[in-house]
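Subject: Interface between my chains keeps coming out wrong

I've been trying for a while to get a sensible model of this assembly. When I model each chain on its own everything looks fine, but I need the whole thing in one frame so I can look at the contacts. Pasting all components below, labels as-is. Any help appreciated, I'm running out of ideas.
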Amino acid sequence: MALITNAIKGTQDTLPKESYKIQYVESAVRETAENFGFHEMRTPVFEHTELFQRGVGETTDVVQKEMYTFEDKGGRSITLRPEGTAGAVRAFLEHGLFNEGLPQKIYYLTSCYRYEKPQAGRLREFHQFGVECFGAGAPSADAEVISLANEVFNYLGVNNLALEINSIGCPECRKHYHKALKEYFEQYKGDLCETCLGRLDRNPMRILDCKSPVCSGIAEKAPTVIEFLCDDCKEHFESVKKYLDAMNIEYTVNPQIVRGLDYYTRTVFEFVSKEIGAQGTVCGGGRYDGLIAEMGGNPLPACGFGLGLERLLLLMEAQKTPFPEPKKCDLYIVSMGENANIKAAEIATELRNEGMCVQFDTVGRGLKPQMKYANKIGALYTLVLGDSELETGNIKLKNMETGNETEMTLNDFVDNFQSVVIKDAMSGFESLGVEGIDLADILGGTN
RNA sequence: GUGGGUAUAGCUUAGUUGGUUAAAGCGCCAGUUUGUGGCAUUGGAGACCGUCGGUUCGAAUCCGACUAUCCACCCCA
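Reply #2:
Try treating it as a single job with all components included. I did that and got this:
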């Protein structure tokens, strides 16, 4: 296939027949975030490369080998954001949001870019819903963001997600832990895999994450971070758990969780699924008390998470989670001849202004193909408009589901179509035994 | 970056031990019905069989390289 008709490796198109699903997910996360008092922040897709080097951490894989970095025409090194937190912190500092009352609770829905080899649940362009809670150091903040993610899953009806939490402590207790880990792993120096040997000096915590059976076997008996937490960190972690219990959120403590971004401190967590392949982390996050100071601000605690929308969609597909049906065409006007088509345009404009979805012929086809098309797009009603209708002013409105035709004058139709549709929709719902219909829903939220 | 699988129409696939015009279903367009969709039926459009090279009288089929894609490692959402 020609280059220009191929999307870039690791990117995806969302086609019109699928887009209602992602729109539904987006509206769900927005609504949930707003209910928690978080407000949207939008930042540019690209930033100075240094921002991510500093924020995400020079030694991380993300920075070392996965960034889309290029030089712009002014000679600046620019990078497409590989994650959302660094840019959010930058904007927080740049606009002095710390002066607008703490905590500042923000969320974002953005694309992220990482140069990785694509596989199930891993793309080069992917989309994240993320939240950040700036200036909140109490354990209740950790629980709050976890709870927000949890509510998103509840809202969407996603289940079988395991919440795993851990505390990796503050820099002070981690220093002691690193030392202990190194001592432990050095006993097994001969057995560790090559990558883990390298990790031994740089960051022994990563060995805990190794998937090699030998290393993970050794890691199983390694000392856990939790044993090395200082009193403050220990108390913080215990308190987070109390909040989670109070909020009725199930979790397991997994001492093996080590996040790959350098900025995390204390609480880290993941929501993990076994149903979407090897990349099972749908949502990951935690506390990053050192990051704001690292970026040049006055020290402020913070926490947040990132949630992969593609992975969430994969999970919903795997679980056959129902999506609300997308809005269909209320009326298709089958027109014959130019005069009728012009009249159709006039009627369509009027009804569209009332919030109805109305379509008419733009191809120049005959009656039958137009009927077929109306059927294909799922039009609820059709109305045939030809010379005789224009002359007499009488029309037949056809309900495409039942096939019933109702005779009326064209003027009556234009005035009353909206209420006809509503009445039919109501009776449809009643026959299903559904109660408490919100009129605004039926009208597509236009009133 | 390292492995493994796959590559035939828009989609899902068939294609014999290599044999001449590459097949079907769905979808698309149109007719059967001079003004009424779904069902049925008939016809039509649509594929240099991923690309390049090799073996052969002859390659969708065998071999090689490349590319793309999927899955896994690594890492992460």
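Reply #3:
Confirming on my end. The first strand of chain A starts at residue 39 and ends at 40.
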